[in-house]
Amino acid sequence: METVDQIKDRIEAALPGVRLAIEGKSLVVDRQHLLDVARFLKTDSELAMDYVSNLCAMDWLPSQIKTRECDREVVRNLPGHLEVVYDFYSTAKKHGPVQLRCRTEGREGTPSLPSITPLFRGAEFQEREAFDLYGIRFEGHPDLRRILMWDGFKDFPMRKDYRPPDDYEWEPTPHDEVLQQTKKHWPAPPPAPVKPA
Amino acid sequence: MIQPLTMPEQGYTLTPKEDAIETQMLEVSMGPHHPSTHGVFRMDVVLDGEEVRRLKPVLGYLHRNHEQLAEKMNWLGSIPFTDRLDYFCSMTNNWAYCLAVEQLAGIKVPERAEYIRVIMAELTRLQNHSCQAGFLLSDTGAWGTPLLYAFREREKILDLFEAASGARMMCNYMRFGGVRADVDDDWLAAARKVVENYPCFIDELEALITGNEILLARTQKIGILPRELAINASITGPMLRASGVDYDIRKVDRYGIYGRLDFRVPLGEVGDVYDRYYVRILEMRESVKILQQALRDIPEGPSDAGVKMRNFKVPVGDGYGRIEGPKGELGFYLVSDGSTRPYRYHVRAPSFINLTILEDMCVGHKLADAMVILGSVDIVLGEVDR
Predict the structure, then answer these.
(1) Same structural domain for residues A177 and A117?
(2) Which of A41, A47, B23, B43 has its CA 20 to 30 A from that of B14?
(3) Contact B329, B100 (CB under 8 A)
């Protein structure tokens, strides 16, 4: 199979306007062109990536990278984002993987990414799982509902800053964080007095 | 509106039979405790008479956020939890996770450990496929007999697992760079005996069920999965091969020592439930061949690369490792930030993704056939819900 650089060059030649970056073994694609690149991988006769094996969402909190340039310390702030990694394989040519990465803008609320389910049916449940656990809204998904958590669940439990509610398990000696959380709702406010009729 | 027929010579009118009587769809929630759903799985089925018109799988009753548990403990700590994914095949789950970590950390596995791993994985495949055939017959109504025949053989394999690892189902046997405990010559002799007798059992099972008229009537041309849809929907394992796609990760990736072993990949032609059943039977025969070669050629030497497990760290990076589990492609996507815990730990579970096309296979069939189709997908809810 071609190397990542060759694939990058071919995609950029075939799809004008697409800019890809290489990180490790994977190609980073922006949100607007994810579907075009996925379609290229699927239809290109040499690659024939007809099979999306794995779709994995990730959460990156905002972070700082400190580097030294000359004799000053430079601090770069990296904004937090959610990321989805796709591993494509080819069952026809028996090669792979080609790894794509796509990042959301920010991680507040439910940021969106294009859905590849119309192209690859195998992404249907995996995108629902990523929506359920990470809160990535996949635009164009035919049936985007929670899949593992129940429908009334509010939060996204796989995010790195997720804190489980404290009433799941009995806490014998509440401390620090749990105590702070508990104070918000315990003891419960007294019930409003009922006026005699 | 059809006009009533008048028959003047007889002096009375006939009201004609109307085919278009008013009917309505019935929505049935099957499960999560229905005996045919193989665990806590629910299907929202919309029925027209007995015919399935729509079917939505509802998952999550066994969800325990396995991935987050693994992200909160060290690399070694999640090996016992992988046992609980697919509790029928804990050995292959261990292997998939260890393979992904080994690829990421660049650990070389010694030769003897590779052989032991192949032996364990193929024994797992044997017991999984024979039990799956038994469960399929249970779903068609042959309650008990074939399943108990399969369980009788499975017992012998579980005894082997117990002798090697100390546990029958939750084996927790593989480690990064090898296996936890070496097997001795007695164990290998016992394994050879089980493998030697296994073809007799497969013949017995086939004599019991393969040509059975009821099985043929209930499984042939039922739940056909077309080849293109199977690939597009990321179906893996025996289901994919029953639809005629020659894709076996043991052949494609040649992980472990599979590149050196001689075996063939059985393929189906129609892609119906019967093909899925029979592909598994043929795969068992190939597994026996693999086991015979592995048990014959197993070399002496260390069974462990001697990786220090305490404070085990993985270099920064990410990687996806996958193996051909009995149910399909079992993969682990791991991201390491260089610490003692994985930053991201993702399980690509074959049962979960194979359920994607359950609706496509069931629509148009009778409700009783939907049970059989679900049985042929071969799901384990520990892996679906994670």
Answers:
(1) no
(2) B23
(3) no
Query: Token digits for A88?
Result: 């494509």
Q: Does residue A195 lie within any of the structural domains?
A: no
Domain count of chain A?
2
Q: Say how far apart CA B79 and CA B291 lie, in whole Å.
A: 25
Same domain, A122 and A96: yes
- With the CA atoms of B44, A151, B351 and B276 taken in that order, what torsion angle do they form, in degrees rounded to the nearest 10? 10
pLDDT of residue A195 exceeding 80, the answer is no
Task: Confirm if B256 and B174 have CB atoms less than 8 A apart.
Answer: no
Gap between the Cα atoms of B373 and B365, Å rounded: 10
Same domain? For A52 and A129 the reply is yes
- From chain A, the residues in CB contact with B322 under 8 A are 53-54
- Is A148–B59 a contact, with Cβ atoms under 8 angstroms apart? yes
Tell me, yes or no, whether A136 and A176 share the same domain. no
Phi, psi of A98 (to 5 degrees): -110, 125
Going along chain B, which residue ranges are E strands? 5-7, 12-14, 26-30, 42-48, 51-58, 174-175, 178-179, 317-325, 328-336, 342-348
> Quick one: A178 and A133 in the same domain?
no
Closest chain B residue to the Cα of A24, Cα to Cα: B317
Same domain? A8 vs A96: yes
Encoded tokens for B364: 């148009």
Chain A residues whose beta carbon lies within 8 Å of the beta carbon of residue B63: 148-149
Q: What is the pLDDT of residues B3-20, one digit of tens each?
A: 665 555 666 666 666 666
pLDDT value of position A72: 79
Domain of residue A13, residue span: 4-154
Residue, of A165 and B197, whose pLDDT is higher: B197
Read off the pTM. Answer: 0.85
Contacts of A182 (CB under 8 A, 6+ apart): A166, A171, A174
Are residues A50 and A103 located together in one domain of the fold? Answer: yes
Residue A11: inside a domain, yes or no? yes
Question: Percent of chain B having pLDDT more than 70?
Answer: 94
In a domain, A119, yes or no: yes
Does B232 sit within 8 Å of A50, measured CB to CB? yes
Q: What is the CATH number of the domain that holds A97?
A: 3.30.460.80
Of B63, B67, B234, the CB nearest to A51: B234
Alpha helices in B166-312 (DSSP H): 185-209, 213-219, 227-232, 238-242, 249-252, 273-297
pLDDT of residue A161: 82
Could you tell me if A121 and A172 lie in one domain? no
**Structure confidence by residue, pLDDT tens digits, A33-69:** 888 888 888 888 888 888 888 899 988 888 877 777 7
Put residue B247 in one of left, alpha, beta given phi > 0 → left and psi -120 to 50 → alpha. beta
Q: Is B17 helix (H, G, I), strand (E, B) or coil?
A: coil
Estimate to the nearest angstrom the gap between the alpha carbon of B339 and the chain centroid.
Answer: 33
Model ipTM value:
0.82
- Contact (CB<8Å) A91/B318: no
For B353, the closest of A50, A58, A126 (CB atoms) is A126
User: Would you give the distance in Å from CA B370 to the centre of its chain?
Assistant: 18
Separation CA A67–CA A80 (nearest Å): 19
Sign of the C-alpha dihedral, residues B72, B73, B74, B79?
Answer: negative
